[in-house]
Amino acid sequence: MKLFVVAFLGVGLAVLAGLWLDRRLPHQRGRDPGVEANARLIGYASIVLLIPLAAEVGTGIRLGLLAHALIGFLLLPPLLLKLGSVGYRFVRYYTGDAGYRLAGPPEIVMRLLGPALVLLTLALFVTGIELWLFGFRFGSQWAVWHKAAFVLWFLAITVHVVAYWRRASELALADSRIRLKGAMARRSLVIASLILGGSLLIAMLPFPSPFTLLPGSG
């Protein structure tokens, strides 16, 4: 019961933090076309990731669930697309590109949360892939690390999603309202990442993973 109360309070605080940040984020208009194109690609990838991520969280309550592992592989390509797009913006800003410098950096709290969220995401997927490939061959601590990374990641991603939900939705719909050069390429990249993720999922189906033999798998 105490654990449930702590989890509820943690998620509640994360949601409130996200709502507070959403009100602080500036709504940018008239940005450089290249900056806007990058932002729209991030918006597409963010919206596409929502449902699979929710499914990943829902199926991850018990370690060893086959669906949880397979959805993780489905998520990899679109997640890498988003990380690559955000990383591109980061590099262009800090190397002094005029358009990105004019658009400005994220809000200070999100600038601090962003690197932590990236590291937690990498830790979550690295430990998950290790469990899929080797199970407990190299020790059960991998499961402990995976669960710890998940708890911290879930709190961080809750803040991130709530803070950026409105902006991501606007960016994902922007090409249907005001066309910007490269709209087809952006959509094609997102669709290709989903197809690649689906192909990766199918390729993993016959893999004899020790992960699927753990108690509660299926």
Could you explain the architecture of this structure?
The chain has 218 residues and is mostly helical. The protein has one domain (33-207). The protein contains 7 helices and no strands. The chain has helices spanning 2-24, 33-58, 66-94, 98-103, 108-134, 141-177, 183-204. Helix 3 (66-94) runs antiparallel to helix 5 (108-134). 26% of the residues are buried. The model has no long low-confidence stretch (mean pLDDT 84).
Topology:
Blueprint: H1 2-24, H2 33-58, H3 66-94, H4 98-103, H5 108-134, H6 141-177, H7 183-204
Helix pairs in contact: 1-6, 2-3, 2-6, 2-7, 3-5, 3-7, 5-6
Helical content class: over 70%
Q: How confident is the prediction overall: mean pLDDT?
A: 84
N to C succession of SSEs: HHHHHHH
- β-strand percent reads under 5%
Q: Helix count, per DSSP?
A: 7
| Domains (count) | 1
How large is the radius of gyration? 19 Å
Cα-to-Cα separation, first versus last residue: 28 Å
The best one-word shape is: globular
